[in-house]
Amino acid sequence: MMRPRILTAMALAVGMAMPAAAQVADLRSTTQFRVCADPANAPMSTRDGTGFENRLADLFGQQLGLPVTYDWFPSGMGFIQRTLRMGTCDVVIGYAQGDELVQNTNHYYTSVYGIVTRKDGPLAQVDRLTDPALKDQDIGVVAGTPPATHLARAGLAPNMRGADLFVDRRVEDPMGDMLAAVRAGDLGAAVLWGPLAGPQVKDDPDLQFVPLLHEEAAPRLFFRITMGVRMEEQEWKRELNSLIRRNQDDINAILAEAGVPLVDDYGRELLP
């Protein structure tokens, strides 16, 4: 879940030079379903089209009767600035609800962080970050993510083996490295975002993903995922909301097949 930042001078200049209504009309394509995406953010989005967000984009393109095209840019700082706000694409398929950089559609799924362990290992029964079994284990976690706060509060800061939050996954794969380390026994566990880790271990003979449903203290470990559009594009948001509502069963099927762990809107119960 990467959250890029601010307006560019070009975007500001465009906004000053023309009325909002004209700006909206000029930015949104009516001949293509233009998606802003990371080309190497497997299992979410990939340039080869195999990510589950690619499949969701295909579903929406079919419903709109438009070809799907992409503006590729690495997730992280500058993503929204260099894609959505530049007007080179019109929607981010997966974006956490409440982020101020985009206008969120209604959420179309809720997922949760979880712990990845070996199925045959001593941590296989762990389902909360306060479990004493974690005390003497090295634990992989992405720096700056909510589970890092929980681990530190549980006194596990010395055990954490951190990976950077913002990386160019065309050349680095910190999540893949952590999963490999758990598989090899170099890490006892890794605490990762469900939509990233769940699909990666779905058919793994050695690893399992256990959602963290019992953490009560802040920060929360579950997030509602929306589609992101430009702030001023109310009509476009309403159209996407309608598509989400009418195609929710197909959306759920794509997510389930991919192995994305789905929870209720309050992060309390794993959905079938």
TrEMBL record:
- Signal peptide (from-to): 1-22
Solute-binding protein family 3/N-terminal domain span: 32-258
Q: Which UniProt keywords apply?
A: Signal
> Which NCBIfam families does UniProt cross-reference here?
ABC_peri_MoxJ_2
Q: What is this protein called?
A: Quinoprotein dehydrogenase-associated putative ABC transporter substrate-binding protein
